[in-house]
Amino acid sequence: MDIPVLSIVVPTFNEAGHLGRVLAEIAHHARSTNVSYEMVIVNDGSTDSTWEVLRASAEKDAAIKAIKLSRNFGKEAAITAGLRYAKGSAVILMDSDLQHPPSLIPVMVDAWKKGSVDIVEAVKQERGSETLSYKIGARVFYWMMKRLAHLQIDNASDFKLLDRKVVDAFNRLHESARFFRGIVSWLGFRKVQVPFSVPDGVARKTRWSFVRLINLALNAATAFTSLPLHIVTLLGTVTFAFSVLLGIQTLYMKFSGAAVTGFTTVILLLLFIGSVLMISLGIIGLYISRIFEEVKKRPIYIEEDTLNL
Description:
alpha/beta, 8-stranded mixed β-sheet, 10 helices, Spore Coat Polysaccharide Biosynthesis Protein SpsA, Chain A
């Protein structure tokens, strides 16, 4: 079997209603690159007829290869599965709802063919019809990743072309809790950015709730930096310094005979120290939970079935 030049990895979850149209459009633009290609579709535990649509599509087109996960493991696990199966010299990762325009595929391949870059990143120029709260949350998230983890991923997306050596480097990583955009930034290599505007695709409603976004931010931050643990140390130092100053003031008041009942001061001090302790324990707990997940060494995903693989 010939190894394709281009692999296109597409994670899917409950996309049966429009998946056929999406695959057809991706295939159309992939053919325009004039290189051999394959599409690796990962069904991330869909509860609708997504797998049946993929089965029918794979029977008609041998370039369509599919992986069915035993349950919904999440997008990061689906991305990992797709990259492990992709055989191309270049691998494009994109969403299955046309928010990542397939028309950009030839542009990304042309940029890669020049040989001067290893990663072609599609960066959002216009974020489309997102809610104000979502846009604010995204800005806060990017700011946090830049300040805490020193990762520059402003307006980045999962829509990327990776050279084979980048994919091989990604596949050598063993961590179970993953953040694709952060890992690609951490890997380094030569990069070029291609701007795009998010179109009004066929499935515009985001599945990312506020709670899931917060969880993603916490996982991403703890995966790439230990700075929050150092913040605990800083809080302890500030609290100690404050306590020393308050102790000196208290002793002065006592020896000068001006001491009065300090009920309010004691209560405020207890509340302050208690809050610092609880916040510190929470931060430490986040890192302990990551250690707990990693030491179990469970597989990132479990396959149930495959097509054309």
